[in-house]
Amino acid sequence: MSFFKELKRRNVFRVGLAYAMISWLVLQITDVVVPIFALQPWAGKLVFLMLAAGLPVALILAWAFELTPEGIRRDSEVDHEQTATARTGRKLDFVIISLMAIALIYFALITTGVKIKVAGILALHPVSPSRYCLLSIAVH
């Protein structure tokens, strides 16, 4: 079996893509939360570095272990004739597609000039380009 077929069988590509999408979502949340809690500007960089350092770990774990109905097992202990790799792959596909849909909606809202404002409830407010000027807190 070739190296790339083995990577595909062990869902390493899917885990990498799912990790990248989840990392993007975590970075977006960090981008919003850092100013709210008045954290240091380097907090976002720290989160990025931690996520970047975690990617090789996630890929190695995806290579070494397999998710089975009985739980997480070492790949060497799993009978590859009765493996649940296809079902696990479908679950990862669902996660990836869901996160891509969230990203697409996010980018669509940003490019159309809609500002998401959370004040107890989620409300969408159209924003004119003139509203992007810097205003003091007292003006709001």
Model description:
The protein is α+β, with helices and mostly antiparallel strands and 140 residues long. The protein has one domain (3-112). Helix content is 59%, strand content 13%. It has four helices and four strands, in the order H-H-H-E-E-H-E-E. It has helices at residues 3-9, 12-36, 42-64, 85-111; strands at residues 65-68, 71-74, 114-118, 122-126. The strands form two sheets. It has a two-stranded antiparallel ribbon with strand order 1-2. A two-stranded antiparallel sheet has the order 3-4. A hairpin with a 2-residue loop joins strand 1 (65-68) and strand 2. Helix 2 (12-36) packs antiparallel against helix 3. It is elongated, with a radius of gyration of 21 Å. The N and C termini lie far apart (63 Å). The model is unreliable at 119-125 and 131-136 (pLDDT under 50).
Compact summary:
The chain has helices at 3-9, 12-36, 42-64, 85-111, and strands spanning 65-68, 71-74, 114-118, 122-126. By secondary structure, the chain is α+β, with helices and mostly antiparallel strands. It has one domain.
List keywords for this structure.
140 residues, two-stranded antiparallel sheet, two-stranded antiparallel ribbon, alpha+beta, 4 helices, 59% helix, elongated
For the record, the count of structural domains works out to 1
- Indicate the overall shape: elongated
Low-confidence stretches: 119-125, 131-136
The helix fraction, in percent, is: 55-70%
SSE blueprint:
Layout lengths: L2 H7 L2 H25 L5 H23 E4 L2 E4 L10 H27 L2 E5 L3 E5 L14
Antiparallel strand pairs: 1-2, 3-4
